[in-house]
Amino acid sequence: MRGWTGRALRIDLTRRKHMVQELDPHVLVDFIGGRGLAAWILWTELPPGTDPLGPHNKLVIAAGPLTGIQGGPNSGKVVVAAKSPLTGGYGDGNIGTWLAVNMRKAGYDVIVVEGRASRPTYLYIENGEVHFMDADHLWGLNTWSTEDRLLRTHGRDVGGIYIGPAGERQVKFATVVSLKGRSGGRPGIGAVMGSKMLKAIVVRGTGRLPIDAEEAARASSDAVREGRTSKAYDFWMRQGTTMTVEWAQEASVLPAYNFNEAQFDGYERIGGNMVEKYETDLKSCPICFMPCGHWIPAVSGTVETDYENIAMLGSNLGIDDLAKVGELNRIADVAGMDTISLGSALAVAMEATESGLLRDLGIRVEWGDFNAASQLALDIAYRHGPGSLFAEGSAYAAKVLGREDMAMHVKGLDVSAYDSRAAPAMALAFATSPIGAHHKDAWVISQEVRTDRFSYSPEKAEWVIAQQRVRGGWFEAFVSCRFPWVELGVSLDHYVRLIRAVTGVDYTRDRLDLVADRIYALIRAFWIRELGGWTRSLDMPPPKWFKRPLTRGPLAGAKLDLDKYNGLLDHYYRLRGWDNNGVPRRSTLKALGLGYVADQIEKYVDVYD
Question: Average of pLDDT values for 108-125?
């Protein structure tokens, strides 16, 4: 078949064996790739109740039919997925890496790793050959040093993903890292690699992609041309997502002091204008025409940064020095930790210090205290002393400290950098994201700020689902970057044309939306099975947004209304065909071709017709 290689590489670390499996063409058409294929594999193959850090969990690295297409647009990405050690549910993330391109050229749509090595190991894959390599000399190294050594060993034409000390020590929000600035798998995918004693995966592929290169090139070039001629292109190239700091301050959505406020006095000293002034380099993922990796000076070197990193490690901690924010960013990247969850954990420590809850642990981390924050960040990465508590995640730490309301999370995953007290649609987007609170699936907050941001109108649920279908469905399955569409206004018609040209399948917008709905329903079923049930409380934003109003800025007094939010959530469920508890109805699952899923989840919940 066209577009897909149709092959999965399966690796058993325990037995040090591998095999190549032919993928079912119907599964590929129905789930496309990336997140869709990963969710299907985890649902189909994981025994219910699998220990996320045990040998039976599976690390899934899934490409899509658009991955690796020369000319893009922005197609050098892959999805990494597993059962999450942070949340206990489905976990994934995408990452820009040359591994994505190389694995497709090596002939694989997906790599599935299971088992546990008896000693530190890395995988070197060259086309059809798989080598189980000793990693004793790499164990203990940070992600950047690991990458340097493996590129020296195997050449700079390979692609790889790596873990650092945080992954080795199974910090619950450890990520995989590539290209020294790309980090993926917020829900602890790096910890899953660490639990398997797997330090890295390095791939060289020299084959050709199974596509009509000429037609794909025409479709790609049209999309890139539209992006490059966008009025937003020049400013994007200068500041990327860091421009959002100034916008978020003006809109009163910039997290400050652990989301206790939504404006920060020092925002100008850490915002996009400051990044533009001091930037040292600009880098991108592979096959990208709009690089977003803005490198800035940090205390001990340079680092790649973006809006979420700056907000969560800057304003949310009360730190207004860009170099110091960059240093916390650098600690996270080098150690292999999620910057968002690290920022959230540090913010909980600061709020706990303010409340006198850390005296017994012998630590004190006050708002704006960079030295204490950087030391705690290192202690988290290496699980030293009190760092071990926060290495379990902010939700766990806050619970142990007796103040669960301090943790800004949904389903165990920390909210990314948008205060949503006066943005009910964005609160709904966070609450219903399929991996826990994350912005990538539906970033509706700009639309909400432009319109009636205090409204709980049913159409806001429609906005969220529409964006979830495209951002979390199409792009995560393709696998391709959403930024050309989101930031430059590149028409989605180009992507429909491209996926049809690449696969030969008669995909339309409606059919792609159906694929997205299928993926979201299957992921919801995975959560239900792994948690042993479901209640609508799992689709609620952090309690702080309901209970603690803003006290500063033009939106002082703003907070979410619980009854009105519940009405909005009800409408979301109705539109998705889920019941009042958020469980997909049997009729919905059947319509999506997932009737077999209903039979399995009815062991844990009532499944209504």
Answer: 98
Report the distance separating Cα 429 and Cα 439, nearest Å.
7
| Per-residue exposure over 109-141, b if at least 16 CB sit within 10 Å of its own CB, e if not | bbbbbbbbbeebbbbbbbeeebebbebeebbeb
Segment 238-244 shows an average pLDDT of 98
- CA-CA distances (angstroms) from residue 448 to 107, 267, 425? 43, 22, 7
Tokens of 383: 């699980």
* pLDDT above 90 as % of the chain: 97
Q: Left (φ > 0), alpha (ψ -120 to 50) or beta: where does 307 sit?
A: alpha
- Letter for the amino acid at 228? R
Inter-residue contact 293 to 304 (CB < 8 Å):
yes
Task: Provide the sign of the torsion angle of the four alpha carbons 500, 104, 92, 527, taken in this order.
Answer: positive
The yes-or-no verdict on residue 369 having pLDDT over 80 is yes
Rg (CA), the chain: 22
- Number of H helices and E strands in the chain, helices first, is 27, 17
Kindly report the number of other CB atoms within 10 A of residue 15's CB atom.
Answer: 9
Quickly list DSSP for 238-265.
HHGGGGHHHHHHHHT---BTTTTBS--T
Could you report the per-residue pLDDT of 172-202, keeping only the tens digit for each?
A: 999 999 999 999 999 999 999 999 999 999 9
Q: Would you say residue 216 has pLDDT above 90? A: no
Q: What is the DSSP string of 10-78?
A: EEETTTTEEEEEEPPHHHHHHH-SHHHHHHHHHHHHSPTT--TTSTTS-EEEE--TTTT-TT-SS--EE
Average pLDDT, the chain: 97
Alpha carbons 299 and 302: distance in angstroms, whole number: 8
Alpha carbon 73 to chain centroid, angstroms: 20
Rounded CA-CA distance 515/536 in Å is 24
Cα dihedral 105, 106, 112, 114 in deg (nearest 10)? -150
The DSSP symbol for 121 reads E
Residue 80 parent element (H or E): strand 77-83
State residue 212's pLDDT score.
79
The per-residue pLDDT for range 497-520, each reduced to its tens digit, is 999 999 999 999 999 999 999 999
**Domains of the chain, first to last:** 7-210 (3.60.9.10), 240-414 (1.10.569.10), 424-489+508-601 (1.10.599.10)
Identify the pLDDT of residue 70. Answer: 85
Beta strand segments in 390-500, E: 409-410, 413-414
- Half-sphere CA count of 118, side-chain side, radius 13 A: 3
| pLDDT-derived band at 576, boundaries 50, 70, 90 | very high
Burial (CB < 10 A; 0-12, 13-18, 19+), residue 547, is: exposed
pTM: 0.98
Residue 1 has pLDDT above 80, yes or no: no
Report the Cα 176 to chain-centroid distance in Å.
11
Residues 6+ apart with CB under 8 A from 185: 80, 81, 82, 91, 92, 93, 95, 175, 176, 338
Q: What single DSSP character describes residue 585?
A: P
Cα separation, 576 vs 281, in Å, equals: 44
> Looking at residue 94, what is its pLDDT?
97
Bridge partners, residue 376, by sequence = none
Of 264, 382, 364, which is closest to residue 317 (Cα–Cα)? 264
